[in-house]
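call fold(seq) -> tokens
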Amino acid sequence: MPLANLHNPYHNLDLFHYYLSLIMIIAIDFDGTIVRSQYPLIQGEQPYAGEVIRKLHERGHYIIIWTCRTGDNLLEAINWLAGHDIPFDRINDNHPENIAEHGGNNRKVYADCYIDDKNLGGFPGWPEVEQQLILREIDEERAFNEMIFPG
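ret:
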């Protein structure tokens, strides 16, 4: 397929939307995943949690903190995240595009992946999470490049 198709403004719009789709919505549990805790007591950061989350956010991924905390306990978690420079885009809330697409805000947070200490098989730790997400990014980028430069 010739690259001349890239001059079609609708084709570029499709590429733009596809490129945006490479940005993942990542829902991350707070207690047991970002922090060590005996709910509601926060006992410190899980090793490498802040470092990996900051990298994900810097690469453009949309971070949703996904927690059962409410009220003062939720405020404590928000303040803890802010105090440790751990970025996030939302807490227990969907990405605005998903809200618009579904005509409302569902109770279940939609994400491309969920990071939680209650995963089947347990939480693998932040270095393994980062590796798995990097591999996923590579696969998605490869597919994107093949779409732009087929053959």
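Strands lie at 25-29, 35-38, 41-45, 62-66, 90-91, 113-115.
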